[in-house]
Structures are given as C-alpha cells and as structure tokens.
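Customer escalation, tier 2.

The customer says the design service returned an amino acid string that "doesn't look like it belongs to this structure." They asked us to rerun it and document both sides in this ticket. The original structure tokens are below, unchanged.
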C-alpha cells in the first residue's frame, strides 16, 4: 500500500480509504448493499491486511448507524487506524438540526464521538455547503474542536471552488485551522473537478479524497452497451453521478476494458489507477458489497498506467475547456503554474 500526505498536513493516509456507507445500511443506504456487523468486520480485516489505515463514514449514513458499526469494529484495534466522519445534513426535525452553525457542528461532533467510541475524530468533514451560516462562525467552531483535541484535521466535501477559498480566507484572516482535504466526486467519467478543485488542491494544499471513484460500479466494466449486471445501485434508483452523454460513457468504459485486458486486470482497477495518478489526489474511498470486490479494488494500488494508456483514456474522456480556460490555454500556457497545469496539461497540443 502507498501512503500519501493528506493535503498540506503531515498526516499519512493510505491510497485507499475504506468507505462504510453500507455498514448497517437501510432504506436509501441499503442500495449500495447493506452489511451487518459480521460482514462489515470482515471487510475491515481485509482492508487492514492490505495496508488501509483510513476509514470513512458520516453521521448522516443511516442516522449514525454506520458510525456505531465502525466504532464497534475498530474499538479493539490499533489506534493508528484513522477515522474520517462528517457533519451537515439533517439529524432531526428541529430548525437547528442541520447546517454548519456552531450549535450544530459542536453538538453533532460530540454525538459522533460517542457513536465511534473514541475521544477524537482524525478528520472532520463539512459534508456540504451551508450558505445561510456565516463562514467565520463555521470555521471558528471547527477551530474550537481542534483546540480542544476532539478533532485532529478538518476538511470539506462537495464544496464549490469559491466556497473553499472563502473558508480558507476566513482561516487565514482569523488564524483558524485550515482545511487540508476536500472529499469530492472525481472520476474519468466525471471530470468537472479539474476546472477549479484540482488546481485548489495543488495551490492551497487542500488535497483530494475521492468518493465513489468507480461511480458506484458504473466504471467497473460490468455496464456495457448491450448488457448490465443483475444487481447494481444504478438499477435501484441511484442517480449519482448523472449521465449526460451515454455514448461518451460507453466509450470510456470500452477504453477502460481495453486497457484492463491488455494488463490482465479489471476495468475497475484501471479507473482507480487513473484517478490515483491525477494531481492533488491523496486517497480514494472504495466501498464494497463483498470481499472479492474489495480485494480486486485494493489490487489497483500497485497498478501504474503508462503515458500511452493515459492518453488513450484522456482522449475519450476529457471535457472541453470553458472560458476563461480556453483563452489561458491558447495565450499564456508558458506562464501557467503547477496548479494551473493540473487542469491544462492534458489539453496542450
């Protein structure tokens, strides 16, 4: 297993993070394939045996039951195993039971700690933007938790580029703790993060942790033009990511399968290796229904794509440059920074 720094921090995280959204899942969270404690514990064993040291959850996953399951499974294991959890979404019917207010963040950090059976959270994510709470209030609350030792590092998830920079400006101005990681959706099929979020990762040290890096199995090679698996979250009402161009999707899958067949690995491993090689990426959150699926995904840690393979994959998946990026690419390419090149490099002819 490879270990990378989480953004600008000194924290070393495994290239693969085990996602636990389906631990004790029910209802909406049953779609990825719910696991009981025994099944979930087995996946944790497999992950740890392969060198995984980071586990991802959220208080929103089945109203905290994922946190409870993960806490129970990890309570007798090494304290070197890291947990990331999240806050933002509604946890009750009251007017203050959602959002990123000081009230909500601190209340639900305490609740998460109890469910996880720990005295601290290694990485605490803001699960989504809250445009109705002042940014200074949110960042001050997070800084309080860091100063109290209840949280080690902070991050955001699903923020826009300007949202992240507004938070970073607040931290700079008030000397609060800064985000070191952004958990985002970013795959060879969904490359929109390249416009702003990857450059921010490189420039500001807000590293990338990718959620659903094979798009819930969509990029596993099982979905083809004329066939699809019998069981899949995409056949059970799952709508993330949205597919705007189905023909483009199938071309991408064809390319992943072709590269995989040439290397003797699955298309899923190729998709994971592609994401792992992109600028600013620190870790990929992988989930699994079963041990075989998890082992296959973990094997991608040793797969390094060649320049020719990457070009093949880029040729079928790259999104066009909108303004002002096409103008920058045409006019000032020789004066672009490393952060700029996180977007621009593949587009240079």
């Amino acid at each position: 297993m490879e270990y990378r720094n989480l953004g600008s921090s000194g924290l070393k995280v495994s290239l693969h993070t085990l996602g636990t959204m389906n631990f004790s899942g029910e209802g909406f969270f049953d779609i990825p394939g719910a696991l009981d404690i025994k099944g979930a514990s087995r996946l944790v064993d497999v992950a740890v045996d392969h060198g995984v040291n980071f586990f991802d959850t959220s208080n929103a996953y089945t109203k905290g039951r994922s946190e409870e399951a993960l806490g129970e499974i990890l309570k007798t294991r090494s304290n070197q195993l890291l947990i990331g959890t999240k806050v933002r979404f509604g946890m009750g019917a009251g007017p203050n039971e959602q959002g990123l207010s000081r009230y909500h963040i601190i209340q639900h950090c305490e609740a998460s700690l109890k469910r996880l059976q720990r005295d601290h959270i290694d990485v605490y994510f803001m699960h989504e933007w809250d445009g109705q709470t002042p940014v200074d209030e949110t960042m001050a609350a997070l800084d309080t938790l860091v100063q109290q030792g209840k949280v080690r590092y902070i991050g955001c998830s699903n923020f826009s580029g300007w949202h992240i920079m507004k938070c970073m400006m607040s931290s700079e101005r008030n000397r609060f703790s800064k985000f070191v990681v952004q958990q985002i959706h970013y795959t060879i099929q969904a490359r929109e993060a390249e416009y702003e979020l990857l450059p921010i990762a490189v420039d500001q040290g807000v590293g990338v942790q990718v959620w659903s890096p094979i798009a819930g199995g969509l990029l596993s090679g099982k979905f083809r033009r004329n066939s699809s698996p019998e069981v899949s979250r995409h056949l059970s009402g799952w709508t993330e990511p949205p597919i705007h161009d189905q023909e483009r999707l199938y071309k991408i899958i064809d390319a992943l399968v072709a590269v995989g067949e040439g290397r003797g690995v699955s298309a899923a491993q190729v998709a994971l290796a592609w994401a792992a090689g992109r600028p600013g990426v620190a870790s990929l959150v992988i989930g699994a229904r079963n041990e075989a699926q998890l082992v296959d995904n973990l094997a991608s840690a040793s797969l390094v794509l060649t320049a020719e393979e990457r070009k093949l994959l880029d040729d079928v998946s790259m999104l066009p440059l909108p303004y002002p990026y096409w103008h920058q690419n045409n006019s000032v390419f020789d004066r672009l920074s490393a952060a700029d090149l996180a977007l621009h490099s593949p587009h240079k002819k």
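Tier 2 assessment: The sequence is consistent with the input. The radius of gyration is 20 Å. The beta strands are 3-5, 12-14, 16-19, 54-56, 82-87, 121-126, 151-157, 179-185, 207-211, 281-286. Sent an explanation to the customer and offered a walkthrough call.
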